[in-house]
Write a structure and sequence with these properties.
The protein is of the alpha/beta class and 398 residues long. The protein is built from 15 helices and twelve strands. Helix content is 36%, strand content 13%.
Length: 398
């Protein structure tokens, strides 16, 4: 976008460029917001100031002048939260997703975005009441498929669309990336990892709401989160595999205090933590990479007994995540293939903001991905609400 503002002298940062950006799900930094549907009449707009990229040399110069290092906090340490992000991560967190040429053309011809018109209805479906705490397990059978990304997207959407509380748990057994993708998670004394919560939530222990709130971090006003195990977790107890029985008891205890509890599972259905989370989940989201090898692997696993019972129970939803902007076979083609075989699958198209790999901000997603996320969230809640109060133990066992 061109402007008439002359460039700054060499070595000086550019002035911020103020733009009004619609944030369909409200602020994701814990600021107050309306609890109604984000696109309903009267929902307050959100104004944000987007800074122009600052040259690396200028950023370093400014940081040196202050006697410190420029950066923001995020949950990526062994205790999970509060370490300084490098400038690269800060920059990648601001990458904006874009829509396809066809969607932009249709939007200009129709006088608006056709996908965005579905957002109010889909958001209303995601606001359906729940009788008891619903547990949603998000998993993948291949690393890098996008399971953590999908878990954070769902948590961000539900927390912004719903007035009640939402929790997201990082069940990673080694270095987890939930803290990085979720962004700054604040807590008194630093939030605990899921392994660190076991003494307070297992063995018949039932913490008070205030005690549990003090152990968890907060990514937004009503979004609580555990810390991610750090890179040095191999020297810490949190690196050890969490026994399935203990994870099952901890998740059941924590979900008493939240309308929705999303568990970001370790990769692989045969891991004890993943098997336990799937066995007790009211809805399970399987993220499959949108590649030929990824889809063929998923097809083979669906034919095996490990996931057959979960699919037969009606609690399994597949998400095909497109990994490449110029993929030879788009994710939508793979989704149709799964649907024709009787499996419910949803598409998560390529998005530059998600592909950047840093903090996820819902307002920076392209309109197509926003609608796809709202559709997925509405369906996840519908499946979770129709599941029995105590799901059948038909999933993989630890």
């Amino acid at each position: 976008m061109s402007t008439n503002t002359p460039p700054p002298p060499p070595g000086e940062p550019r002035r911020p460029l103020s733009r009004t950006l619609p944030d369909p799900w409200g602020p994701d930094d814990g600021a107050s917001r309306s609890s109604g549907a984000p696109d309903s009449p009267g929902h307050p707009g959100v104004r944000r100031t987007i800074e122009q990229p600052v040259p690396r040399a200028s950023r370093r110069t400014a940081g040196a002048a202050r006697g410190g290092r420029a950066g923001v906090t995020a949950g990526t340490g062994a205790g999970g939260v509060g370490e300084a992000l490098s400038y690269d991560v800060l920059r990648l967190s601001s990458v904006r997703g874009s829509d396809s040429l066809l969607a932009r053309t249709l939007g200009s011809l129709a006088g608006g975005d056709p996908d965005a018109q579905q957002l109010p209805e889909l958001t209303a479906l995601a606001q359906a009441p729940v009788a008891t705490g619903r547990r949603v397990a998000v998993f993948a059978t291949r690393g890098g498929a996008g399971a953590t990304t999908t878990a954070v997207l769902l948590a961000r959407f539900f927390s912004a669309a719903r007035p009640d509380r939402v929790a997201i748990l990082d069940a990673a057994e080694e270095h987890g990336t939930l803290g990085l993708r979720l962004g700054a998670v604040r807590g008194s004394g630093g939030p605990a990892t899921l392994a660190g919560l076991l003494p307070a939530t297992t063995g018949g222990n039932l913490p008070t709401a205030e005690e549990l709130d003090g152990l968890l971090g907060h990514a937004a006003g009503n979004l609580a989160a555990t810390a991610s195990p750090g890179a040095d977790a191999s020297a810490d107890q949190s690196a050890h595999e969490i026994p399935g029985s203990l994870l099952r008891e901890a998740c059941a205890t924590i979900s008493r205090y939240f309308a929705l509890t999303i568990v970001d599972c370790p990769t692989g259905v045969l891991r004890p933590a993943t098997g336990a989370a799937l066995a007790d989940a009211h809805a399970a989201v399987w993220v499959v990479p949108g590649t030929l090898s990824g889809v063929e692997d998923a097809m083979a696993r669906l034919a095996a007994p490990t996931l057959r019972g979960l699919a037969a129970s009606g609690r399994l939803l597949l998400v095909v995540a497109q990994q490449d902007r110029a993929a030879a076979v788009p994710a939508s083609v793979h989704v149709r293939r799964f649907n024709e075989l009787g499996y419910e699958a949803h598409v998560l198209g390529y998005d530059a903001h998600l592909a950047a790999g840093a903090r996820i901000r819902a307002g920076l997603l392209g309109a197509e991905r926003r609608t796809a996320l709202a559709r997925l969230a509405a369906r996840v809640l519908e499946v979770a609400n129709t599941a029995p109060r105590s799901p059948d133990r038909t999933g993989p066992r630890a």
